[in-house]
Amino acid sequence: MSSRLVSRAADYSGWYQQLVREADLAEHSEVKGCMVIKPYGFAIWEHMRDALDRMFKETGHVNAYFPLFIPKSYLSREASHVEGFAKECAVVTHYRLKNSPDGSGVIVDPEAKLAEELIVRPTSETIIWSTYRNWIQSYRDLPLLINQWANVVRWEMRTRLFLRTTEFLWQEGHTAHATAEEAVEETRRMLDVYTRFAEDYMAMPVLRGVKTANERFAGAVDTYCIEALMQDGKALQAGTSHFLGQNFAKAFDVKFLNKENKEEYVWATSWGVSTRLMGALIMTHGDDSGLIVPPRLAPIQVVLVPIYKKEEELNRLREIARGIADQCRAQGISCKIDDDDSKRPGWKFAEYEMKGVPLRLALGPRDVEANTIEVFRRDTQTKESRPLDTIAQQLPALLDDIQRSLYQIALDRRTANTHEANSWDEFKSLISERGGFVLAHWDGTSETEQRIKEETKATIRCIPLDAPAESGCCILTGQPSERRVVFAEAY
RNA sequence: CGGAGAGUAGCGCAGCCCGGUAGCGCACAACGUUCGGGACGUUGGGGUCGCAGGUUCAAAUCCUGUCUCUCCGACCA
Question: Residue A29: which nucleotide is closest by CA–C1'?
Fold first, then answer.
């Protein structure tokens, strides 16, 4: 089992980067901070997208598409929103190029300056709410439940493939409601959708909670989030769902007549997850041999490798393999037969392990003779012989077991890396020496949160929704606190 | 924006100190032997040495300038 990856223990960041490249997920493009998502990586993203899209539709949402460009003035309509995004916006100032006078290519035509600059969307609240203004007049137009799959651009200082790129793919839901209660309910519903997606599809346990004022989305009243713990002990924000109150409705003057014929501002939510989830997937399940894709998201759930010497042998094996593949298809399992003659079995084994294919079947003359087939589980890296005749029927249970097991291992790891801190010294040593989630009391002030960040690099990931009330004293200031919050160093 | 490193074949790198025919591994192509854990042999194709100046008979190598990228920080919903 020769590994092409540096071990996680030796160099976690190096391991991540090598895995992304070696598993053929993505690579740096010629454009700074932007990535090329390669076909295999994109196939995984498509599975994520499809599953989420189904869940959105099941909860009553429809898809639409809004412009990539946002007039600069729109962004500044909501004060805290522009403050949050202004420093990372790409701006379009001209609409034409012309030949350079010295003949060395093209230059921006100074004559073609836009009257108003366009911002490449960092998020679409402003353009969408300026549109909703025209769509909403009556309570009968509500709720408006729309999602958009799109790319967005945020000019970040430092990027990492999938985790933070200048351009990334995501979905953003933008909904409008007649009452605050309904909007809050929607915010929570979508947090539930994200939670179910993370846990049921990605096999990634998440903490659900509310962000503190410091970490809140620019323009939101409340930001709910799911937070996952990566194998290196750092937290990753995996999805957010915002209750926007009437901030955007007021900024864009979106009013409706209620049943009492009274004019009111609309209540809003927005919620999103991005290709960052790919990073979460890698860092939740990957091991030193490569990626492990949970079966429910795997582009290839089962790969079948025939092992043969002569052409006649291959023909015989191919026939059996196709039979198995057909039965897989009938059960909704994606199965690839890799009979590429230019690669040897050992090469293929290593390759599919790197790519995290959950199950590998190896079929050679010896198996046919014994009426068996070799089954290799990517998650446990174990192989066993199973009866050939019934192998296809055994696969669903195996895939389910892998899916369940991946979740359980991730959950156990999170449990093992979640600690309570009851004093400042204990807190500091937990954060610096063990990492993980640290549950601690906090006095509720931004100042304290800021000081803790400056001294330990840890931030409050969320105020957990499910945690019981428990009175205590802030670890830093000793002021009273009513519940523990979740601290961690974050990506 | 601060610190570090790197630009030489598709990828990874050596060569630079000490100027003189541009090299190695992987990958690629052909053929043969192989094929149950990343095969081996033979042959072959592929490079304006990031860019621009300068020094020199001669520059990947020395000098000056410049651009880009990566990593670590800072920043970041």
Answer: B69
The ipTM estimated for the assembled molecules is 0.88
Please report, rounded to whole angstroms, the spatial distance between the CA atom of protein residue A476 and the C1' atom of nucleotide B58: 70
Which nucleotides on chain B have any atom < 7 A from a protein Cβ?
A: 1, 28, 34-39, 68-77
CA of A247 to C1' of B59 (A): 65
DSSP A111: G
CA–C1' gap, A239 and B59, in angstroms? 55
Q: How far is the CA of A31 from the C1' of B20 (A)?
A: 39
Cβ neighbours for A30, distance < 8 A, ≥ 6 positions apart: none
**CATH 3.40.190.10 corresponds to the domain A295-400:** no
Instruction: Please list the pLDDT of chain A residue by residue as tens digits (491 residues).
Output: 345 788 888 888 888 888 998 899 998 887 888 888 999 999 999 999 999 999 999 999 999 999 999 999 999 899 889 988 988 899 999 999 888 776 667 788 889 999 999 999 999 999 999 999 999 999 999 999 999 999 999 988 888 899 999 999 999 999 999 999 999 999 999 999 999 999 999 999 999 999 999 899 999 999 999 999 999 999 999 999 999 999 999 999 999 999 999 999 999 999 999 999 999 999 999 999 999 999 999 999 999 999 999 888 999 999 999 999 999 999 999 999 999 988 999 999 999 999 999 999 999 999 999 999 999 999 999 999 999 999 999 999 999 999 999 999 999 999 999 999 999 999 999 998 889 999 999 999 999 999 999 889 999 999 999 888 999 999 999 999 999 999 999 99
Please state the domain extents for chain A: 24-285, 295-400, 418-488
- H or E element: which one contains A26? strand A26-28
Return the CATH superfamily for domain A418-488. Answer: C-terminal domain of ProRS (3.30.110.30)
Own/partner contacts of A253-261, CB < 8 Å, gap of 24 or more, are A253/A133, A254/A129, A254/A132, A254/A133, A254/A136, A254/A176, A255/A136, A256/A136, A256/A137, A256/A138, A256/A139, A256/A141, A256/A142, A256/A178, A257/A137, A257/A138, A257/A139, A258/A139, A258/A178, A259/A139
* DSSP H or E stretch at residue A41: helix A39-58
Q: What residue type is assigned to position A360 of the chain?
A: R
CA of A223: nucleotide with nearest C1'? B77
Using DSSP's 3-state secondary structure scheme, residue A174 falls into strand
Please give the CATH number for the structural domain made up of A24-285: 3.30.930.10
